[in-house]
Structures are given as C-alpha cells and as structure tokens.
Specification:
Oligomer: single chain
Distance between the termini: 40 Å
Largest sheet: 7 strands, mixed
Helix content: under 10%
Number of helices: 0
Radius of gyration: 13 Å
Shape: globular
Order of helices and strands: EEEEEEEEEEE
C-alpha cells in the first residue's frame, strides 16, 4: 500500500511562490509516474503537471513557464515549484501516482494524496 502526503500549501500573495511536496510511504516512487492535480471550490478537478519515472515532464497550458515539477527518488518525493502565482491558482492541490502513466483526466490512477490548500490573494 502506497500512501501519499502533500505539504507546502498556504496563503501567498499574487506573484509569490510556493513549493509543494508529496512524500510517499510504503513503496518506492522510483518507477512511478507522478502528477499534480487541483480543484477549486465549485470547479472540476484539473490536471496541473506530471513527471515520468525517467523525469520527463509535461504540463497544463495554464501553468507552463510558471510551475515546475520535479522528483527526488531517493526521498520518494515529488515537488511542484509554483512561481508567479495568480488568484486563479487557488485550489486544493493533490498529488497522484501510477505505475503506468498519469492521464490528464485523472481517471484510473493508482494512488491519491489527501490534498494541500493553496490560496493566492489578490
């Protein structure tokens, strides 16, 4: 059983930065694809970023140039560095892991974390 725990969320002003972490327990992440999703109140869950076990990454268009996903397999941790934050980035951010691939739909993924709140004030 793999457990994912997100951290690093908080309140930040527009234009600021946050670094989210997602730490895994129970099984190594070394061969997992990892991803970040977010869900704002009253909105649908949306894909943010994903990274393969090879460390190749892909992003949603609305975060390109602002967010960077990375992983540290030795620590079983995936990160999301968020710069130039906007109020519309306010959401609960969830990490996910899958032995296959991270689908932008978020469907059928093996594991999900509990989420961490990110609030960006204007």
């Amino acid at each position: 059983q793999v457990q994912l725990i997100e951290s690093g969320g908080g309140l930040v002003q527009a234009g600021g930065s946050l670094r989210l972490s997602c730490a895994a327990s129970g099984r190594t992440f070394s061969r997992y694809a990892l991803g970040w999703f977010r869900q704002a109140p009253g909105k649908e869950r949306e894909f943010v970023a994903a990274i393969r076990w090879s460390s190749s990454a892909y992003y949603a268009d609305f975060v390109k140039g602002r967010f960077t996903i990375s992983r540290d397999n030795a620590k079983n941790t995936v990160y999301l560095q968020m710069n130039s934050l906007k109020p519309e980035d306010t959401a609960v951010y969830y990490c996910a892991a899958d032995l296959g691939a991270i689908s932008p739909t978020g469907h059928g993924l093996d594991y999900w974390g509990q989420g961490t709140q990110v609030t960006v004030s204007s």
